Backbone:
């Protein structure tokens, strides 16, 4: 990765030199300003209102509460089979939710007490009004959290009693109350900011009064300094504020949060680094979720043939088997072994592709890459009597890791062959185009098709077979989606039963 030049350092050094020069001249007048505002600064310093840390902790605990609540619902869906893991997970989620609810209640009381103490310390009516408004907002937070907690515990009790439908219906209200509570927290933060600004404004007003007796030259220097600081600080502060907001969104679980700046911003390097970090974090979280799901699916897919193979071996160990029974059992064992081999081979391919996702891209002619894939699977294509029509005239060349583009073509071709309609010749149409600067490949067949609205997400999950008569590991489209996700691409599917399927792949 090419190291970006440090533009911020250069600008800061240049402008700071000018500001330091002015401040040296103004040094003689600083003592006068300190004396004039000393009393007001003391008043402000005596009011300590550290509730931002408390509210941040409340937001964090509330987020973890919501996660525990969702986990309780998820585990409850798996408790019908008396799964020990599900029962234990549900109990842990329930306990975590109740513990975090107590923490939020304690934090809210602490925030309320901080505002009450601040009210006792301030003597200015304007500040008292703002503090009273802040106190009312915190009490409203306490009320909202009590309501949210009560209804959430009712849902958990319903889940524990096995009333899943009623619990899911009631959870909608809980989610709504959770959103309302989060908005209230933001409102309290805004009121706290208004209070802080009011305190600063008092000091600024006193400074303005003291400035009246400062000589014209000093006033000129102050104006020049303020202009220099303001123009520079604003150009830095605004993006940094956006970064702070983006970080809060990511911290709250919104991993889609990104920052947009004008091209001449001096903080472009920081923002670009932040967005790159957010992109990596988003993909990493998505990859973790997919890997967890993949692991569960793999365990389920391997369990049946392994169990079956064990039963067959047990049957072979019996001494009273005749020749015909022995051959039948042996044939079944071979079929089971073949099924295991297919699954393991597919797993090896998935892991190999996963390890090579970060491979460097290269300039590829799409047609030549497709020809290599077709050549490797020529016998299957001929046996299916498939006719492939292609058009890469609009976008013949692209930059992409070759092995991964070949894997995409391979699994789409094999998928089309596996799900071909036996009542008509298989036709496959492949076309490339540029859409909003992105390379897009349209892959269309006239096979059996499926309900793309109903199965739009399910078809990309591992070990999914919509048509049960088709053999295979059910990992082809999962691999395609994994590659596209890593390169920040995407796929759109349109299909109807008996009318084929169309895959629109945005590769980068």
Residues:
């Amino acid at each position: 990765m090419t190291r970006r030049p440090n533009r911020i350092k250069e600008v800061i050094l240049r402008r700071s030199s000018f500001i330091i020069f002015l401040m040296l001249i103004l040094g003689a007048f600083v003592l006068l300003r300190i004396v004039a505002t000393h009393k007001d600064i003391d008043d402000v310093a005596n009011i300590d209102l550290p509730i931002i840390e408390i509210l941040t902790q409340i937001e964090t605990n509330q987020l973890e509460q919501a996660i525990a609540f969702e986990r309780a619902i998820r585990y409850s869906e798996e408790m019908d089979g008396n799964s020990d893991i599900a029962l234990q997970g549900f109990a842990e989620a329930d306990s975590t939710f109740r513990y975090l609810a107590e923490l939020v209640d304690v934090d809210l009381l602490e925030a309320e007490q901080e505002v009450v103490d601040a009210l006792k310390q301030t003597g200015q009516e304007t500040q008292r009004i703002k503090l009273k408004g802040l106190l009312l907002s915190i009490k409203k937070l306490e009320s909202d959290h009590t309501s949210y907690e009560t209804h959430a515990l009712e849902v958990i009790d319903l889940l524990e009693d096995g009333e899943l439908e009623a619990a899911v219906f009631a959870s909608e209200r809980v989610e709504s109350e959770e959103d309302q509570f989060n908005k209230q927290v933001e409102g309290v933060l805004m009121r706290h900011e208004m209070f802080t600004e009011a305190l600063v404004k008092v000091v600024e007003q006193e400074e303005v009064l003291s400035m009246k007796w400062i000589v014209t030259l000093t006033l000129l220097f102050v104006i020049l300094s303020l202009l220099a600081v303001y123009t520079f600080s604003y150009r830095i502060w605004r993006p940094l504020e956006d970064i702070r907001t983006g970080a809060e969104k990511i911290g709250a679980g919104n991993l889609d949060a990104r920052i947009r700046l004008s091209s001449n911003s001096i903080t472009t390097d920081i923002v670009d680094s932040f967005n790159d970090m957010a992109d990596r974090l988003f993909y990493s979280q998505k990859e973790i979720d997919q890997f967890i799901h993949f692991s569960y699916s793999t365990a389920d897919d391997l369990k049946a043939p392994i169990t079956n193979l064990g039963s067959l071996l047990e049957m072979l160990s019996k001494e009273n088997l005749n020749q015909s029974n022995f051959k039948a059992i042996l044939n079944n064992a071979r079929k089971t072994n073949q099924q295991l081999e297919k699954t393991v081979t597919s797993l090896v391919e998935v892991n190999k592709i996963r390890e090579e996702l970060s491979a460097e891209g290269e300039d590829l002619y799409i047609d030549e890459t497709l020809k290599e894939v077709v050549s490797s699977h020529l016998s299957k294509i001929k046996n299916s009597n498939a006719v492939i029509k292609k058009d890469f005239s609009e976008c013949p060349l692209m930059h992409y890791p070759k092995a991964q583009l070949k894997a995409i073509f391979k699994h789409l071709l094999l998928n089309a062959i596996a799900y071909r309609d036996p009542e008509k010749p298989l036709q496959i149409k492949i076309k490339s185009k540029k859409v909003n600067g992105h390379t897009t490949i349209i892959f269309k067949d006239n096979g059996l098709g499926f309900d793309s609205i109903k199965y739009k997400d399910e078809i990309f999950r591992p070990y999914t077979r919509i048509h049960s008569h088709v053999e295979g590991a059910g990992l082809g489209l999962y691999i395609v989606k994994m590659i596209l996700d890593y390169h920040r691409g995407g796929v759109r599917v349109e299909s109807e039963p008996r009318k084929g399927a169309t895959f629109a792949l945005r590769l980068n």
In short: The first strand starts at residue 362 and ends at 365. The two ends are 19 Å apart (CA to CA). The chain has a mean pLDDT of 77. The chain has four domains: 1-46+215-266, 48-201, 278-355, 359-508.
